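Quick one:
INPUT:
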Protein backbone atom coordinates (compact mmCIF):
# COMPACT_ATOMS: atom_id res chain seq x y z
CA UNK A 1 0.00 0.00 0.00
CA UNK A 2 1.14 3.54 -0.64
CA UNK A 3 2.42 5.62 2.26
CA UNK A 4 -0.45 8.09 1.83
CA UNK A 5 -2.90 5.22 2.42
CA UNK A 6 -1.11 3.64 5.41
CA UNK A 7 -1.71 4.31 9.09
CA UNK A 8 1.17 3.39 11.36
CA UNK A 9 -0.11 2.61 14.86
CA UNK A 10 1.90 1.59 17.90
CA UNK A 11 2.07 1.72 21.65
CA UNK A 12 5.44 2.40 23.27
CA UNK A 13 6.79 -0.61 25.17
CA UNK A 14 7.13 1.49 28.34
CA UNK A 15 3.37 2.15 28.36
CA UNK A 16 2.47 -1.39 29.46
CA UNK A 17 0.46 -0.02 32.40
CA UNK A 18 -1.48 2.39 30.18
CA UNK A 19 -2.20 0.09 27.20
CA UNK A 20 -1.21 -3.47 28.19
CA UNK A 21 -3.04 -5.03 25.24
CA UNK A 22 -0.88 -3.23 22.63
CA UNK A 23 2.28 -2.16 24.51
CA UNK A 24 5.39 -2.82 22.44
CA UNK A 25 3.38 -3.58 19.29
CA UNK A 26 3.16 -1.90 15.90
CA UNK A 27 0.79 -2.35 12.95
CA UNK A 28 0.45 -0.75 9.55
CA UNK A 29 -3.16 -0.58 8.45
CA UNK A 30 -4.96 0.78 5.41
CA UNK A 31 -6.79 4.05 6.01
CA UNK A 32 -10.09 2.15 5.77
CA UNK A 33 -9.19 0.41 9.06
CA UNK A 34 -8.61 3.64 11.00
CA UNK A 35 -10.87 2.46 13.83
CA UNK A 36 -8.53 -0.46 14.59
CA UNK A 37 -5.63 1.97 14.89
CA UNK A 38 -7.35 3.58 17.87
CA UNK A 39 -6.43 0.54 19.97
CA UNK A 40 -2.87 1.90 19.94
CA UNK A 41 -1.60 4.94 21.81
CA UNK A 42 0.27 6.53 18.88
CA UNK A 43 -0.57 6.97 15.21
CA UNK A 44 1.24 8.40 12.21
CA UNK A 45 1.10 8.22 8.46
CA UNK A 46 -2.21 8.65 6.64
CA UNK A 47 -3.91 9.65 9.89
CA UNK A 48 -2.04 12.97 9.60
CA UNK A 49 -3.52 15.42 7.09
CA UNK A 50 -0.13 17.16 6.93
CA UNK A 51 1.41 14.13 5.19
CA UNK A 52 -0.34 14.93 1.90
CA UNK A 53 1.13 18.44 1.85
CA UNK A 54 4.73 17.18 1.88
CA UNK A 55 6.90 16.58 -1.17
CA UNK A 56 7.79 12.98 -2.05
CA UNK A 57 11.23 13.42 -0.51
CA UNK A 58 9.80 14.89 2.69
CA UNK A 59 7.29 12.04 2.99
CA UNK A 60 10.04 9.44 2.59
CA UNK A 61 12.13 11.20 5.23
CA UNK A 62 9.10 11.29 7.54
CA UNK A 63 8.59 7.54 7.02
CA UNK A 64 12.12 6.68 8.13
CA UNK A 65 12.01 9.18 10.99
CA UNK A 66 8.83 7.48 12.21
CA UNK A 67 10.56 4.09 11.98
CA UNK A 68 13.49 5.39 14.02
CA UNK A 69 11.15 6.95 16.59
CA UNK A 70 9.25 3.69 17.07
CA UNK A 71 12.40 1.68 17.57
CA UNK A 72 14.73 4.03 19.43
CA UNK A 73 12.41 6.22 21.47
CA UNK A 74 9.48 3.88 21.99
CA UNK A 75 11.19 0.50 22.35
CA UNK A 76 9.40 -1.33 19.54
CA UNK A 77 11.37 -4.39 18.42
CA UNK A 78 13.27 -3.45 15.27
CA UNK A 79 12.30 -6.63 13.40
CA UNK A 80 8.64 -6.21 14.38
CA UNK A 81 8.74 -2.63 13.08
CA UNK A 82 10.48 -3.78 9.89
CA UNK A 83 7.88 -6.49 9.25
CA UNK A 84 5.03 -4.01 9.80
CA UNK A 85 6.60 -1.33 7.58
CA UNK A 86 7.00 -3.83 4.72
CA UNK A 87 3.31 -3.17 4.04
CA UNK A 88 4.32 0.31 2.82
CA UNK A 89 5.53 0.41 -0.79
CA UNK A 90 7.89 3.34 -0.29
CA UNK A 91 9.60 1.53 2.59
CA UNK A 92 10.10 -1.74 0.66
CA UNK A 93 11.48 0.13 -2.36
CA UNK A 94 14.02 2.15 -0.33
CA UNK A 95 15.54 -0.29 2.13
CA UNK A 96 18.77 -2.06 1.16
CA UNK A 97 17.98 -4.44 -1.70
CA UNK A 98 19.48 -7.43 0.11
CA UNK A 99 17.21 -6.92 3.14
CA UNK A 100 14.44 -9.45 3.61
CA UNK A 101 11.24 -8.04 2.10
CA UNK A 102 12.94 -5.40 -0.07
CA UNK A 103 11.65 -4.86 -3.59
CA UNK A 104 12.67 -2.81 -6.59
CA UNK A 105 10.29 -0.06 -7.62
CA UNK A 106 11.65 -0.45 -11.14
CA UNK A 107 13.19 -3.93 -11.35
CA UNK A 108 16.59 -3.96 -13.05
CA UNK A 109 16.61 -5.26 -16.60
CA UNK A 110 18.01 -8.73 -17.08
CA UNK A 111 20.65 -9.37 -19.72
Amino acid sequence: MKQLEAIIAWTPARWADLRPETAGQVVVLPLAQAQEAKLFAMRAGASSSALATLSDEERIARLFIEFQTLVVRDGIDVQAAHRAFLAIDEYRFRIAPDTEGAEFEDPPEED
